[in-house]
Amino acid sequence: MNTIVVIGGGAAGLACAVHLQRSGAHVTVLERGERVGRKLAATGNGQGNVTNVDCSAANYFSDDPAKVGRALARFGHEDTVRFLESMGGIFLPDVRGRVYPAGRQASAVTDLFRGELSRLHADICCGIQVRKLSYDGSFLLEWEGGHMRADAVVLAAGGKAAPNFGTDGSAYSLALSFGHTLTPLSPALVRLRCDPALVKGLKGIRVDAALEVLRGEKRVFEGRGDVLFTENGVSGDLVFRASSYARAGDVLQIDFLPDVGMEKLQDTLVRHAGSLLCVVPNGLGRALTRRAGEDGADLAGSVKRFRLPVKGDCGFANAQVTKGGIPLCETDENLQSVFQKGLFFAGEILNVDGVCGGYNLQWAFTSAYLAAEGALSC
Ligand SMILES: Cc1cc2nc3c(=O)[nH]c(=O)nc-3n(C[C@H](O)[C@H](O)[C@H](O)COP(=O)(O)OP(=O)(O)OC[C@H]3O[C@@H](n4cnc5c(N)ncnc54)[C@H](O)[C@@H]3O)c2cc1C
């Protein structure tokens, strides 16, 4: 029987191992951390936003959007829900199409994988960081104090974001040794940094707002959702979505009252001596009023068009996802390396990243399925 090794026990590696083991292959998962699925257990603010009902390729960035579309057509969000529910649990969308386990616990999703892989008698080896991968008729995987052989390898070792979960970018070298390249890497789904003086007094305030990312005259993003002020910038669900588009030098324009027109706001301010009580949250109202008093800014303007020039992002350490990776064009339709037969990729290690809302886990599950199908026919 062929031996298949999955490097990385994250969302993609675990899903791939389940597909393979269910199909009768013998799988070994090598994970550098003490436990598998640690990042998965932390997703969606601990609630596990596993996919999204609107899972089209338009929600992804990659070097080959058509290939992402074909991959999603083979394993889309309904397949993900069916797959997860085949291990246990119930998965439901919220009003915005984001799918979560009904119990809203991401750690329970990791538990489903652990339980299923144990039931299937897969070999899960933790505390093993594969440092070298080579091929001389079969694959040789090497780590400190050990090595093993495999007929096929699925490299699902993640990207460079959130290194506290074992993904510091060091695993890219395993692919580079076969001639693969990397597209430029940058943090995505990440807090944005601004001049601290511009957000002074706003730290901790969370609002439902509309936000535009402006690049000169051009609007490169617009959306609606949660914005959370930090001491040096902004965070929150909407900012994470915007971060896929924003870069240093852009301006974030926030509308704190998106359901009310400027005219009504100005009329209210005139009639009630400039009071923002019951217009925006009190903390925000006080901060905007104080600021208008200090620098003479137009109060209605700062409610409807609050402008924050972007200085940058908060780096890989604070990012949820890596933008960039191994180009899709260096893989076939089953994400097999075009340079080395039997070497497959799955998950964030590839140059595919999704916007905020369950798209990155969907990619992990989609690519895991494709790689498993390919490895089975090796
Ligand atoms: C805080 C947080 C919240 C998130 N929330 C969501 C969400 O709600 N919805 C969503 O869609 N996405 C979310 N994401 C993104 C999503 O978790 C990732 O895109 C996804 O986990 C990628 O899966 P992966 O299997 O490719 O990589 P990972 O899950 O990162 O797993 C890779 C694994 O490989 C291991 N590894 C690395 N190198 C080696 C090596 N050399 N040898 C052995 N093992 C190795 C790592 O330890 C790690 O366990 C979130 C990310 C973070 C950080």
How would you sum up this structure, described in words?
This protein is an alpha+beta fold and 378 residues long. The chain folds into two domains: 3-186 and 323-376, FAD/NAD(P)-binding domain (3-Layer(bba) Sandwich); 192-313, Translation factors (Elongation Factor Tu (Ef-tu), domain 3, Beta Barrel). The protein is 28% helix and 25% strand. The chain has ten helices and 22 strands. It has helices at 11-22, 65-74, 77-87, 106-119, 172-176, 237-243, 262-271, 282-295, 299-304, 359-376; strands at 3-7, 26-31, 51-52, 60-62, 91-93, 98-101, 123-126, 132-135, 139-143, 146-150, 152-155, 186-188, 192-193, 206-215, 218-230, 233-235, 251-255, 306-309, 312-313, 321-323, 343-345, 352-354. A seven-stranded antiparallel β-sheet has the order 18-17-14-15-16-13-19. It has a five-stranded parallel β-sheet with strand order 7-2-1-11-21, covered by helices on one side. α1 packs parallel to α4 and α1 (11-22) packs parallel to α10 (359-376). 48% of the residues are buried. The structure holds flavin-adenine dinucleotide (FAD). Residues 7-13, 30-33, 39-40, 42-44, 49, 129-130, 156-158, 162, 165-167, 171, 320-321, 347-348, 358-361, 364 line the site of flavin-adenine dinucleotide. Flavin-adenine dinucleotide binds at residues 7-13, 30-33, 39-40, 42-44, 49, 129-130, 156-158, 162, 165-167, 171, 320-321, 347-348, 358-361, 364.
